[in-house]
Amino acid sequence: MKFGYARVSSKDQNLTRQMNSLTKAGCEQIYSEKASGKNLNRPQLQELLNTIHMKDEVIVEDLDRLGRNNRELTQTMRAIQDKGATFTALSLPTFDGIADPNLRALLNNLVIEIYKYQAEAERQKIRERQREGIDLAKQRGVYQGRPKKYSKHSHDRSGRFLYQQVLEMLDQGIGPSAIARKVGVSRSTIYRIKGARKEGTVNAE
Fold first, then answer.
1. Does pTM surpass 0.90?
2. Using H for helix, E for strand and C for coil, what is the string for 74-88?
3. Is 9 part of the annotated catalytic residue set?
4. Which end of the chain is more exposed for a tag (fewer CB within 10 A), N or C?
5. Of 9, 158, 177, 188, which residue is the catalytic one?
6. Taken in order 121, 91, 22, 74, is the CA torsion positive or negative?
7. Which of 66, 96, 68, 91 is nearest to 81 (CA)?
8. What number of other Cβ atoms are within 10 A of residue 77's Cβ?
9. What percent helix, strand, coil does the chain show, rounded to 5?
């Protein structure tokens, strides 16, 4: 059986193009979700991996739909192989014309490994360029760092509201752990806000 998997990173992105490609590829069942690729804890992906069996085929439009780095891709593809299923990325070359299944699988795996290496190398280059840019900005004295999310002077409406809400709860004697659970942020953020008020600083995160 052919299973498809489609993913976009945010809720405002559209899955239609991927769904159409997977349908044209003959997928009989398609799992789709709107979730970040930063980890493998995605409900639809996990359901797919739990569903596939021997001789099934998992199809994605592009390899990065499964994961964002070499480790995640390798882990997911190993899970597919452990089930006895095969894997196809529509954006990569196919070897359907090769009759020998072992040779076809070997070539397919080779292409995937090359792709993973190139993708990881490109991400590394991007990170290096970002670091170089930050270093140059610091040297010029224009680097301001990541915008502070929860600042008492923030222009972000929800951030300013959260800051005041946390202060009010602290004044009521509510502990940081309870506040963090109630407002949906980490305890470290609560402690930053608490420390910022105590020290008279502007930014809490």
1. no
2. HHHHHHHHHCCCEEE
3. yes
4. N
5. 9
6. negative
7. 66
8. 19
9. 55, 10, 35
| Domains within the chain, CATH numbers bracketed | 2-91 (3.40.50.1390), 157-199 (1.10.10.60)
Give the whole-angstrom CA distance, residue 50 versus residue 46. Answer: 6
Alpha-carbon 34 to chain mean position: 10
**CA–CA dist 56, 85 (Å, integer):** 5
Residues with Cβ within 8 Å of residue 88, at least 6 apart in sequence = 25, 57, 58, 59, 60, 94, 108
Distance CA 195, CA 79 (A): 45
Identity of the amino acid at 155: H
Cα 8 from Cα 49, distance rounded (Å):
18
Return the amino acid letter for 131. Answer: R
CA distance 138 to 135: 5
Distance between CA 53 and CA 58 in Å, rounded? 10
Q: pLDDT tens digits, the chain, 205 residues: what are they?
A: 999 999 998 887 899 999 999 999 999 999 999 987 777 788 999 999 999 999 999 999 988 888 777 778 888 888 998 999 988 889 888 777 777 777 877 787 787 777 777 777 777 777 788 888 888 877 877 766 665 556 555 544 555 567 778 888 888 888 888 888 887 778 888 888 887 776 555 444 4
User: Minimal CA–CA distance to 57: which of 118, 8, 117, 104?
Assistant: 104
15, 80, 196 from 32: Cα distances, Å: 8, 17, 43
